[in-house]
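User: Design a sequence. Structure:
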């Protein structure tokens, strides 16, 4: 995990949220984080969760995954490059990696003078519990 600015103190809630991002292998929404905190007896209200998420976003410790029209999910900025599968029934989101992605990117037919700097790829379908 990236280091926080020196003048900030980590509250138990912030520590717990950081811990969730480090140990969870899929993106999390504010509501999911709120529920997971309750399970470990941290009763922060949802406003506090959003405030902590804002803090972590500002410090680039996490980033947002914006999926048009859906819930906002967050994930650690430290994770290796990957993509997401999104369940169109429950809105759940999981990580996926593409084997030999470099080769796939090499084969993209792009305008000749265009330099690609980054990309995002999402896959839609039904998850195990919704199938
Ligand atoms: Zn990629
Ligand atoms: Zn689902």
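Assistant: Done.
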């Amino acid at each position: 995990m990236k280091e926080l600015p020196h003048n900030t103190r980590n509250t138990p809630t912030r520590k717990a949220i950081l811990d969730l991002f480090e140990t969870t292998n899929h993106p999390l929404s504010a509501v999911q984080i709120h529920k997971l905190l309750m399970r470990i007896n941290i009763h922060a209200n949802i406003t506090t969760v959003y405030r902590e998420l804002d803090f972590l976003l500002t410090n680039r410790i996490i980033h947002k995954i914006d999926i048009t029209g859906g819930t906002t999910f967050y994930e650690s900025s430290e994770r290796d490059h990957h993509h997401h599968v999104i369940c169109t029934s429950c809105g759940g989101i999981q990580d996926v990696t593409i084997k030999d992605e470099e080769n796939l990117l090499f084969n993209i037919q792009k305008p000749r003078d265009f330099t690609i700097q980054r990309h995002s790829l999402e896959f839609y379908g039904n998850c195990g519990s919704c199938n």
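The beta strands are 28-29, 62-65, 73-76, 83-87, 93-96, 122-125. The chain has a mean pLDDT of 90.
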